[in-house]
Amino acid sequence: MTQVERHTYDVVVIGAGGAGLRAAIEAREQGLRTAVICKSLFGKAHTVMAEGGIAASMGNANSSDNWQVHFRDTMRGGKFLNQWRMAELHAREAPDRVWELETWGALFDRTKDGRISQRNFGGHEYPRLAHVGDRTGLELIRTLQQKIVSLQQEDFKELGDYEARLKVFQECTVTRVLKDGPKVSGVFGYVRESGRFFVIEAPAVVLATGGIGKSFKVTSNSWEYTGDGHALALLAGAPLINMEFVQFHPTGMVWPPSVKGILVTESVRGDGGVLRNSDGKRFMFDYIPDVFKEKYAQSEDEADGWYADPEHHRRPPELLPRDEVARAINSEVKAGRGSPHGGVFLDVSTRLSAEEIKRRLPSMHHQFMELADVDITAEPMEVGPTCHYVMGGVDVDPDSAAATGVPGLYAAGEVAGGMHGSNRLGGNSLSDLLVFGRRAGLHAAQYAAGLGAADRPLVADEQIDAAAAEALRPFSAEGGDPAAPENPYTLHQELQQTMNDLVGIIRRADEMREALTRLAALRLRARRAGVEGHRQFNPGWHLALDLRNMLLVSECVARAALERTESRGGHTRDDHPEMDRRWRKVNLVLGIAEAEDDLGQVSLVRRDMPPIRGDLLTLFEKDELLKYLTDDEVDA
Amino acid sequence: MATGTEPHTDAARRGVLTTGRAAIAARHLRTDRWWVPPLVTALGLGAFVVYSTWRAFANSNYYSEPYVSPFYSPCLGANCVDMPLGARWPLFGEWWGLSPALLVLIFPLGFRLTCYYYRKAYYRGFWASPPACAVAEPHATYTGETRFPLILQNIHRYFFYFAIPVAGILTYDVVLAFRDTHGHWGHAGLGTLILLINIVLIWAYTFSCHSCRHIVGGRLKHFSKHPVRYRLWSWVGKLNARHMLLAWASLISVAVADFYVFLVASGAFDDPRFF
Amino acid sequence: MSTYTAHFKVWRGDTEGGGLQDFDVEVNDGEVVLDIIHRLQATQAHDLAVRWNCKAGKCGSCSAEVNGRPRLLCMTRMSLFGEDEVITVTPMRAFPIVRDLVTDVSFNYAKAREVPSFVPPAGLAPGEYRMAQEDVARSQEFRKCIECFLCQDTCHVVRDHEENKAAFAGPRFLMRIAELDMHPLDAAQEAGLDRKSSAQDDHGLGYCNITKCCTEVCPEQIKITDNALIPLKERAVDRKYDPLVWLGNVIRRRTP
Ligand SMILES: Cc1cc2nc3c(=O)[nH]c(=O)nc-3n(C[C@H](O)[C@H](O)[C@H](O)COP(=O)(O)OP(=O)(O)OC[C@H]3O[C@@H](n4cnc5c(N)ncnc54)[C@H](O)[C@@H]3O)c2cc1C
Ligand code: SF4
Ligand code: SF4
Ligand code: FES
Ligand code: FES
Fold it and tell me: Which end of chain C, N or C, is more open, meaning fewer C-beta atoms within 10 Å of its C-beta?
């Protein structure tokens, strides 16, 4: 049997981003022994990169705001494909989650009367995003990290050991969720530093591993985003939904090439930045879709008036939901009206003073100065779409965040699907992390506490051996296989290129078929991915192992995108450009197929969503509902 | 994490060469001219020390009506030269035979010696602790300002309190410098201008002091409840950001002022008159 | 777009030892040192260990030393160096080595745990916190910290004196104490914890000789020394060296 380091906990949380840390805090506060595992150092998870803010209808900036309005905006943004119950819980609970952060030491920017300041963002009717300059994610993660430290300090006082009830296993990667029959029994992974394997036995596992962006070439995401949680769920038998919806953020840096994709926060537009093409035209006015015609300004004057007097003006079209803006930029560039490096111009310098820009957007100022030699207080930025967020994810129960079909498995944060429908509004992710992170932690803890000692699932040795053999394969790739070992870095680059070119922002059936073929070939080659050196902190090995996850997840994206023959939110089909009301309530549910078919290894079934509760429907005008829902659904 | 171990007696195993850290033989790998700033600092401070020691002990050529050297004001010895209206208070009796400058210089000296900026400057420039960032320092042990004598740096604030009356007296001297050699008001010579510039820099340096910043507002928890002190703190903060610059500027201006008085008093130079 | 070949020396090794290894590698317009390290990984040294996450200067993972200066690899532009300059990249030299450019930074996490956490004020429910912008601004500056630990790495107190690690929290965590002490609603004092004197008594504030290397290397441009460490020293002076305060304490202690 493989030698592994073994631990036993009640709840294991995979991921130390906003969702994971919030889940861990909750599980520990329920009194259970909790472990958090993360691939990078504690406090470095992807959440630190979030800039703009946390959406919560606290009503500090405009007292008309409330959870119903937030719910409405979220549903509109997601084109009504959202799991409505999640959208409801999210809108109701977000303010409490934000206020709670203050009691743990967070320092948001303030209003004049000392409350949390809230800023405008695309798709949100009122200023709603609690923020700290443009480093809100850092504040969020640091606050949660420091709350964890404070819980550990309590345990130290009481038990003499900081880690008695809550331990962070940093720089450890989980490669398998282990099961005892249908139930979760623990996790298997390796320690990056030493390369040694470990097993944590636990009846409840929360997936909070974030997104999948590293499968795309131009992305705002960090190396962690290899879709591990999505793949772990699939491999454990839990299905994914909505994987065709990938959000391309409209504004990423486009130059210099080495920083292509790095995010330019939406707050630039929220605070007055305008988009122009190479003719100097504010082109967004030409791209307001019918469903949003009444809500957005039709002229520059009207749009300009909104910044000072939002009551009497409609908002500028720069603040349309992200999918709309990204497509518009894409079209402008394709039509030859792009900027020198293949983007469009985003300019705040004409609207805000240099002082104000430095105060409100300090890290953007710094980022452009340092990386591109552009002074955004004096010149426009060049921006273009970048892969940013995956709406799809593990299919979960809305109230408990429990994954479908695998007792003991939970998912929260970007890795969970449903909440954002076909397109996420800016700021709704950070609040999602807190709301559903807490719920996942709570229900995982209750589930674990409810199990008697005798019902605790056991970890079988064969599973450990199998997981270890799988993880070690890259080291022996040279020996057995006939062909030469593949360079994992090359495979990764080819994968990114494939996804970027063929399953990117605008999609076509033939291209996606082509993508599936290429992915299948890459999958075969990835089995031969070989690495040199030893197991200690070996990035080549780590990447070789991540490839399995990226390929699996990419296939899900391509497979689902091929199936959905309409355009909606983060899924745009050249060959099916219209939104189709009949597709509105359909979720595409993905699993691992029993046997491979000609499209690959994943299985796909269509599933109807539960009808939206009546009182929630009454929050909308009937006219508006008819744009999204079929006549039958509205009448019912 | 290695803790509580005694410092390594063997210089080859200390600091960046400690076992367990990346094995790199060089004590630093900086390729820029990192030694220039500490060298310039050491030379600059050294020159001032030499000059001021000479002038402080000289006990001569420090007054030439209406100008008094800032080194000798207030003049507290009985042996001070006669200065009409000047800050000449013979608090110390006849027994003090040395230069009267030594009686007062202790205050500006203490102020500057314990100043947070000068501390940085001489710790780096003279004591090489550290000589420059990420350049290993030569000392086997280091306790910083935790023990006697360096723990005394904490009394900087009291020198700040004393610095205010001293600067006040120097201001008074500048006012007196608007008289001519016969005591009539309405004069201004090059000396007046030099003393004026000097006192402005001295005040700017004094107000930019970190202790000052702390006292006027920095110590508060709620600025919003003390709007006036908050505004003061903001002003002092702006000055404070230039504390290093002011420290050098005022150091040079003091020396220049003294040297000018010396030149005039010794007859080497005739004070040009503006009006 | 211009391309040239740069000469790199990268430290490779582990606890057993190691040394600088030479590489010739292609450099393109606008690239940063981390891009070059990645190119080395992809083409010449697949197992070259380096930490990084965001490649945007936001996470503080990619700390190392370039030509002897502590820096973020992802924010160090190649244009900073001459085309024929030899560029030396080593791991941070104040912490134990793990492998290649990766060091063991657990010292910092241990220190983080030693700083008592925020104490919420009694009697204020969530949602009732009121703080003015000018009151939170000071602490907000310190909360920009991305925990890259470059300041901890460069600070000579521990870099040059391993034996001081036990007693000294380092600039990052002294700044954390300042942050909490300036937090308008922190109720540590009411709970019997005086952060000001404890900074000196328990966290080694006195070791800092305000030589400002932490400020020089901070990629977030936080004025660590001027805005956190010196004010904290002044706060400790309030408590311990101000004769008026001292006198007050003596008198108060006498009266029962
Ligand atoms: C540049 C940028 C800006 C953004 N700005 C905003 C914004 O302003 N507002 C907003 O609401 N949202 C924003 N988002 C989106 C938001 O930041 C993310 O969706 C969110 O942070 C995801 O959080 P999470 O908790 O799900 O996962 P993450 O924070 O990504 O954490 C994932 C964790 O899982 C760990 N992990 C992953 N795989 C494994 C494994 N196999 N084993 C062990 N651990 C593993 C990782 O180490 C990490 O700790 C932004 C995103 C980006 C990229
Ligand atoms: S100023 Fe103090 S804390 Fe900062 S590097 Fe220097 S000695 Fe260390
Ligand atoms: S204070 Fe600056 S240098 Fe120190 S850890 Fe934070 S960001 Fe890094
Ligand atoms: S005079 Fe320099 S800090 Fe006080
Ligand atoms: S990789 Fe995140 S700071 Fe450099």
Answer: C
